[in-house]
Amino acid sequence: MSTVHMLAGIPGSGKSHYAKECCKRHRAVLVTTDSIRERLFGSEARQKNTYLVFQQAHAEVEQALAAGRNVVFDATNIGRDRRVQFLQKFKDVPVECHICATPYEIARERIRARKRKIEDKVLEKYAKNFEFPVLGEGFERLHLVHTPADVKLDRAGLERLLASKPDHDELFGYLRASPYFAAMLGYDQENPHHSKTLSEHTYAVLEYINAFYEGEFLLQMQLAALFHDAGKPFCKVWKPARGYYSYYGHEHVSAGIACHVLKELGYDDDFILRVVNMVSFHMEILHGGDSGASRIYHLLGGHLLAELYFFAEADTYGK
After folding, report:
1. HEC profile for the chain?
2. Among 9, 48, 99, 166, which has the minimal tally of Cβ within 10 Å of its Cβ?
3. Do 244 and 300 lie in a common domain?
4. Among 89, 109, 86, which residue's Cα sits nearest to residue 97?
5. In this predicted model, what pLDDT tens digit does every residue of 160-203 receive, in sequence order?
6. pLDDT digit string (tens) for 241-299?
7. 181 shares a domain with 130
8. Cα(63)–Cα(69) distance, rounded to whole angstroms?
9. What is the CATH number of the domain that holds 80?
């Protein structure tokens, strides 16, 4: 049976290069929105008429499947709603998602080096809105596509430290070697809902988990605590109407950071995805109400919903 291989990732994440490799590996037809824009409008930089572009992409996917071919679908695919629409349209075909979780800094440098540029503010918007794919959307399988980049941490050392239940200064004395965590030290969130610095808040969430968590996934919960707000410095935006800073999308940026660091440290994909899901949905459980809880249940299942309720307690305690 034919299979669709959907790629997901921000511009500059290496999707196009990976798509070519994927086509060779699976003897697949390549359907790419950039090529469709080039054909329809004379330039792949033309970002308007998105509906028409995806309508054509779906038609090309259908044509390839009808011919008995595998398909590689190369687009950013950062939004869950659009991915689900695709999966519902092709519900009788197995669809695997290949997630290019390349660090923002690397993606930005790649874009600066290529002919077709994208403004930083546009790339930042992609990063803040990248809803990390989950199996519950309807995928047959998820693949984490890794771009190696030193994270200045050691897996064994990190696990020993977490097992020892260190105090704040000991924990961040180690973590500060990584720029993702160095940025948290002394970071004033300048928000009325947070009285602690970012490192103090992160530690308080970890402290609550160490004291009260009784499940079987302690290490994953500890790591989720470390990463859940790692994207805040990237997402900080002043809101004049509110009179304080907002961090919209930080859960999505944080999930990407967690994925990259844990992959670099050598954790397996199932382990990583559990941590990433906790990070990615921690705002949904806090502010989504009953509808948010229902979405989480249908996407992740009852056990992770319960874990997220506990994580929300820890997050609230840490404020």
Report:
1. CCCEEEEECCCCCCHHHHHHHHHHHHCEEEEEHHHHHHHHHCCCCCCCCHHHHHHHHHHHHHHHHHCCCEEEEECCCCCHHHHHHHHHHCCCCCEEEEEECCCHHHHHHHHHHCCCCCCHHHHHHHHHCCCCCCHHHCCCEEEEECCCCCCCCCHHHHHHHHHCCCCHHHHHHHHCCCHHHHCCCCCECCECCECCEHHHHHHHHHHHHHHHCCCCCHHHHHHHHHHCCCCHHHHCEEECCCCEEECCCHHHHHHHHHHHHHHHCCCCHHHHHHHHHHHHCHHHHHHCHHHHHHHHHHHHCHHHHHHHHHHHHHHHHCC
2. 48
3. yes
4. 86
5. 999 999 999 999 999 999 999 999 999 999 988 888 999 999 99
6. 888 899 999 999 999 999 999 999 999 999 999 999 999 999 999 999 999 999 999 99
7. no
8. 9
9. 3.40.50.300
Of the candidates 77, 71, 26, the residue with the CA atom closest to the CA atom of residue 54: 77
Q: How many domains does the chain have?
A: 2
Reading the block at residue 249, the tokens are 């999308």
User: What's the maximum distance between 2 C-alpha atoms anywhere in the chain?
Assistant: 61
d(CA 133, CA 7): 10
- Domain extent, residue 229, equals 155-317
Query: Where does a domain end: 110, 145, 180?
Result: 145
Shared domain check, 135 and 36 = yes
Kindly state whether residues 16 and 52 are assigned to the same domain: yes
Residue 274 is encoded by which pair of tokens? 């559990």
- CATH number of the domain residue 261 falls in: 1.10.3210
- Is 265 inside a domain boundary? yes
Whole-angstrom Cα distance, residue 155 to residue 219?
A: 12
